[in-house]
Amino acid sequence: MTTAEDERMRRWRLVLGGGDADGTGRTLTGTDSAMDRALTALYDRKGRGGDRAAGLGASAPSVARWLGDVRRYFPGSVVQVMQRDAIDRLGLDALLLEPEMLEAVEADVHLVGTLLALNKAIPETTRETARAVVRKVVDDLERRLAGRTRAALTGALDRSARIGRPRHRDIDWDRTIRANLKNYLPEHRTVVPERLVGHGRASRAVRKEVVLCIDQSGSMAASVVYAAVFGAVLASMRSLATRLVVFDTAVVDLTDHLDDPVDVLFGTRLGGGTDINRALAHCQSRITRPADTVLVLVSDLYEGGIRDEMAKRVAALKASGVQLVVLLALSDEGAPAYDREHAATLAALGVPAFACTPDHFPEVMAAALEKRPLPVPEA
Q: What pTM, to 2 d.p., does this model score?
């Protein structure tokens, strides 16, 4: 058997879980044997039809030991998948309320979502550990996303602030020359400036407003986490006035907490119903300069409020000059289940609804600030 065939059989043996029916005839030893035990603990072959089914004991010490083994033998991306399976398949949510368990898990966006859903049940003895886990994930996300977001939005704001007919003292000569190089006259060794490019004087610069309106129903957990991070990044930019609103059937304005996204996240309440119309009404009442405002609604569009009123409110916001962006999700997972009829209604109003990854979000926001067509990802 060649090395490649041997490796293929090894992988199949780990997937199938051993026993008389695996058909590989492969015996595992050493690290492979330990990996197999960790997989068996979660996916033990006890289900109907021979499928692997849950076999991990639900005591905190045994789960903590298992988590240690998983982190030792598998890469981080696999660890996160196995953690989610353990929580979803075995109902281990309650164990996350114990500090020892939180210290053992691999922190990621999905774990933060689970902790936020359990927020009200977290005992005081565990709350600081939970905040530390959430802060680690938030800090990692900020390091990944903040620089690119500030760069993209600063460029967009700079471009949108330029003056088309500047007075002499407001001319940006560098950009004017670059914009008119095609009009260079060699015989006169000069550029004819057909178009003058100016920059707004600081005292006259218009501060753009951004309103993030985030659905905090249970299916939107990852979107809430990313929205909190982006909200903090946008709030740190002096050229933007940023507001963050989260909603279910009630509306909570978390703008005052934007300096710390961890406080924002622990101020949310995942789960419950949805009243998008009510949330949009709250945002609309806070908008003072519609033409200079971008409103970002992140929701799966399952409206529990008045559906027709929501569509009318969207139309009114758009007619007033608000740049409206509707994201079905703000996460790496793509579009979740969503209300397709409602999405079609918005599209008919000229407001496309689409899922957006965190890496694509700066580009979407830059286009909205410049009032360009939104770069909607291909389905």
A: 0.72
